[in-house]
Design brief:
This protein has ten helices and 21 strands. The chain is an alpha+beta fold and 468 residues long. It has a seven-stranded mixed sheet. A seven-stranded mixed sheet has the order 4-16-13-18-11-7-10. It has a three-stranded antiparallel sheet with strand order 19-20-21, with no helix packed on it. Strand 5 and strand 6 form a beta hairpin. Helix 2 packs across helix 3. The structure holds 2-oxoglutaric acid (AKG) and fe (ii) ion.
């Protein structure tokens, strides 16, 4: 996961400043907001943003202001509104598009707006349930009741057992150590890979000590996930992408998961802030298969709006770029879309997702307990790390660490280009070296290195499905 964690921006000298570095200032607002959300998951992000603005962007001041105010104080951010009462009711997932009305209650979308244009407004949430609506208006597709019921339960039980080993990612916020508002663990296929992940791979810029070998059900289910995700990718290409062709830099190969992040959200307050997933090992335009088990929760997404797009003539009407082949719900540049993820649903985050959208699991005020998981939700994101992006091949910054890959978002001239950056830009408290290099990829999204560089030495991660 590309961390919602704080990333202190490193100043680089003028000669090293790429045109798009302005993207960072926009990013940092998100990151600052994510910090506040992780500190105050009970508050609405919009309200936290107001506090952040009032404190002229100082997270430290905003955090101390929020801390010092009793709940009853006027101006204190509102507590989150109660979630819809139909949370957890999987059988009603047909053709209901709900949106929040002025008074905060959920109303059928048809009552609050014209049926055809799925419009969201700043600060509003558009709730989508129907797989067809989700496929048409978001960069995701969903399959409900994905596994046979028994198989889903066995997998859930296995991962609930595993969850005793999960840890909370810790990060530094000024003088405080802040913990991620949910626990997680990374899984790979073999003990050798486990070691390699600990020593070579970073997550959101930091090395992780907790990597485990994928247990039986997690691997076995991956075969079904692999098949379904490949089918969904082909369907997406045929039905949605321009000229029925894969996106530029999207891999043309079969999607073969070889790593999984498993998250546990224990209770309604646990969450993950808005982020996009780290591209460093996935490469450009990755596809991710995300299986949800246990308590139903809301997966919220919002499109990343470049500053020039927001200020310019496209404001309120997101551009339809080649990478963004679907016309997103109008105005969702400002509002957000909520996709409800019931037990045993497979969400496919398609190739256009990570570069152009951010996603989160919003805290809920109430949840419907699950008969096996109680208050817990388990989520597995099956990922395919590219052999060609092994940390032995990717550039090292002047700190001697593997650089991280990011996509430029802000300026029209450079939007969509990729860059290698010093990992410390993600790790607050570390000065970093301000390393920067544009990243070049071929049409299939594999890196193009300078001539003579060998890329056959690193051990390849083993595909889960190829294991017994
Ligand atoms: O829990 C989820 O559905 C999303 C998790 C996620 O975003 C991640 O692991 O990067
Ligand atoms: Fe994520």
């Amino acid at each position: 996961m590309d961390a919602f964690v704080s990333r202190k921006r490193v100043k680089v000298s003028a000669s090293e400043v790429p045109q798009d570095r302005g993207a960072d200032s926009e990013e940092s607002t998100d990151v600052k907001l994510a910090m506040l959300v992780s500190l105050h998951p009970e508050c609405l992000p919009d309200d936290l943003l107001d506090v952040l603005v009032a404190c002229e962007g100082s997270v430290e001041e905003a955090a101390s202001l929020l801390q010092s105010r009793p709940d009853s104080t006027a101006g204190t951010p509102r507590k989150r509104a109660a979630p819809p009462s139909f949370l957890g009711v999987q059988s009603s997932l047909t053709n209901h598009v709900m949106t929040k009305a002025e008074d905060g209650s959920l109303k059928p979308f048809s009552e609050t707006a014209g049926k055809k244009s799925l419009a969201t407004q700043k600060g509003k949430t558009l709730h989508l349930f129907d797989p067809q609506d989700i496929a048409s208006h978001t960069p995701c597709t969903i399959i409900h009741n994905f596994l046979p019921a028994d198989e889903a339960n066995v997998l859930l039980e296995e991962l609930l057992q595993e969850s005793q080993h999960f840890t909370r990612h810790e990060f530094q916020l000024f003088s405080r150590t802040v913990k991620s508002p949910h626990s997680a663990c990374v899984y790979v296929s073999t003990p050798e890979e486990q070691q390699q992940q600990i020593s070579d791979y970073t997550y959101g810029g930091t090395y992780r000590a907790k990597i485990r070998q994928a247990p039986r059900e997690l691997r076995s289910v991956s075969r079904k996930v692999q098949r379904a995700v490949n089918e969904e990718i082909q369907k997406r290409i045929r039905e949605v992408y321009p000229d029925g062709k894969k996106l530029k830099h999207q891999s043309a190969k079969e999607w073969r998961p070889n790593a999984a992040f498993v998250n546990c959200y224990d209770g309604p307050g646990e969450s993950v802030g808005y982020h996009s997933d780290d591209l460093t090992y996935l490469g450009p335009h990755p596809v991710i298969g995300s299986l949800s088990l246990g308590v139903e929760r809301e997966f919220r997404i919002r499109r990343v709006v470049a500053r020039d797009e927001e200020a310019g003539e496209n404001a309120g009407s997101p551009a339809q770029t080649p990478q963004s082949p679907i016309k997103a719900a109008r105005g969702d540049a400002q509002g957000q879309i909520s996709i409800h993820l019931p037990h045993n649903s497979l969400l496919v985050m398609h190739a256009e997702m990570q570069e152009e959208w951010k996603h989160s699991i919003a805290p809920a005020q109430t949840i419907s307990p699950h008969p096996i998981a109680g208050n817990r939700r388990i989520n597995i994101t099956y990922r395919w790390y590219r052999d060609t992006m092994h940390p032995r091949y990717t550039p090292r910054c002047r700190c001697g660490k593997s650089a991280i890959l990011r996509c430029a978002k802000n300026k029209q001239e450079t939007r969509g280009r990729y860059m290698w950056m010093c990992y410390a830009g993600y790790d607050p408290g570390k000065p970093g070296c301000s390393f920067f290099q544009w990243a070049e990829f071929d049409d299939d999204g594999d890196p193009v290195w300078e001539e003579g560089r060998s890329v056959d030495l690193a051990p390849k991660l083993v595909n889960f499905a190829s294991q017994g």
